[in-house]
């Protein structure tokens, strides 16, 4: 049986590379005619390249919009919300994937409030504001399913120094950053070993499980789902 998400408005943050980019490529073929995909990240050129790729390989009736914005600031969040306002009111599904994240500015100490706030602004606050803005822009109604997916990490539920013992990271620029520039020697060394031993997950492995969960529609709202438990 053909399974798909129907006519949907899909928003993916951090779509310029890594997991977000692969996610956009995997979701596009599962959308029906008239769907809209909003791709957000700072690198406009990369987003436009992905937009071209989706238009060539995907369906011509999928509208892809790019929002080249910094999600760590108010204007960036507002621009993405604005892109969702003009969407077709007849959609079956709204899917917002919070995927943008940044580990490049490790806080080396917690005495600089501005540094800490700017880090939290992207990784925490902007996702909350974007969720609220998008839910307001696309109000609930019968027949519309609104799904918010927070791409998270085991680091969110366990202290960071132990994370490598319990999960395999994704093979993306973020993992490269962790094994090259992490301030913690143990994390840097373990990440390097995982990479050298070919123990990293591909984005496609992780995405195929995520999309199966969404298509099966059997999760409980608010669940924290781990790749290895699925
Ligand atoms: N890699 C792993 O091992 C791993 C493990 C568990 C969970 N995760 C989670 O998976 C998600 C994706 O990770 P990834 O490995 O694909 O990361 P990545 O390769 O570093 O990509 C991060 C994405 O976020 C965007 N981004 C960063 N700062 C931004 C900002 N200020 N405004 C807008 N967009 C911004 C980047 O685009 P621009 O630079 O163009 O803005 C990029 O598209 C993250 O939430 C991460 O925490 C990753």
Tell me about this structure:
By secondary structure, the protein is of the alpha/beta class. The protein has two domains: 8-151, Rossmann fold, CATH 3.40.50; 154-202 and 222-230, no CATH class. 42% of the residues lie in helices and 13% in strands. It contains seven helices and five strands; from the N terminus they run E-H-E-H-E-H-E-H-E-H-H-H. The protein has helices spanning 18-27, 44-57, 74-85, 113-137, 173-181, 185-196, 203-216; strands at 8-13, 36-41, 63-68, 93-98, 145-150. Strands 3-2-1-4-5 form a five-stranded parallel sheet, sandwiched between helices. Helix 4 (113-137) links the parallel strand 4 and strand 5 (145-150). Helix 3 (74-85) packs parallel to helix 4 (113-137) and helix 5 (173-181) packs across helix 6. Mean pLDDT is 86; it is low at 162-167. Bound molecules: NADP nicotinamide-adenine-dinucleotide phosphate.
Task: Name a few traits of the molecule.
13% strand, sepiapterin reductase (NADP+) activity, 7 helices, five-stranded parallel sheet, binds NADP nicotinamide-adenine-dinucleotide phosphate, oxidoreductase, alpha/beta, 5 strands
